[in-house]
Write a structure and sequence with these properties.
This protein has helices at 23-30, 41-49, 51-74, 95-104, 152-160; strands at 2-5, 18-20, 36-38, 76-81, 88-93, 114-115, 121-123, 125-132, 138-147. It folds into two domains: 2-49, Ribosomal protein L9, N-terminal domain (Ribosomal Protein L9, domain 1, 3-Layer(aba) Sandwich); 67-149, Ribosomal Protein L9, domain 2 (Roll). It is an alpha+beta fold and 161 residues long. The longest helix has 24 residues, at 51-74. A hairpin with a 5-residue loop joins strand 8 (125-132) and strand 9 (138-147). The protein is built from five helices and nine strands; from the N terminus they run E-E-H-E-H-H-E-E-H-E-E-E-E-H.
Length: 161
Amino acid sequence: MKIILNQDVYNLGEEGDVCVVTNGYARNFLIPQKMAVLFNRQSISMFESRKAAITKRKEEKRADSAGLKEKIEAITLDLKVSAGDSGKLFGSVSNATIAEELKKAGVVIERKKIEITGHTIKTLGDFIAKIKLYGNETADLKIIVKSDKKTEEVESMEKAD
């Protein structure tokens, strides 16, 4: 079924794009959610009249994502988590954890847009997470996972003072 998107749909297209999707996806999800309209003469003329506004919004979104990319790549997240002596975490660091930490740093990102190699971080160390921005653009976020235990060296230094 041929449709025109009313808004950006993840993994499908941007507002104003003409897409071909399965009948069930269009009838049961996209059209009832007002994310798309059927491809016909009426909807084509409606989108032609809104074309300039749609193009302007797309340019603004691209500019915003470029600024967000610079902001994200300047951030290094230092996460302190419980870990064993071997460096294995008690639990894991997921994309939801990273989204919360980014929110504390002043950057709001949906957890669905954060990709971690292996889906979760289960050991101490340095990692890179890919964050999907508008279109095909991505940003790399540096993550440093440290143990929240005090190391023996730090404890011996504190005793010496």
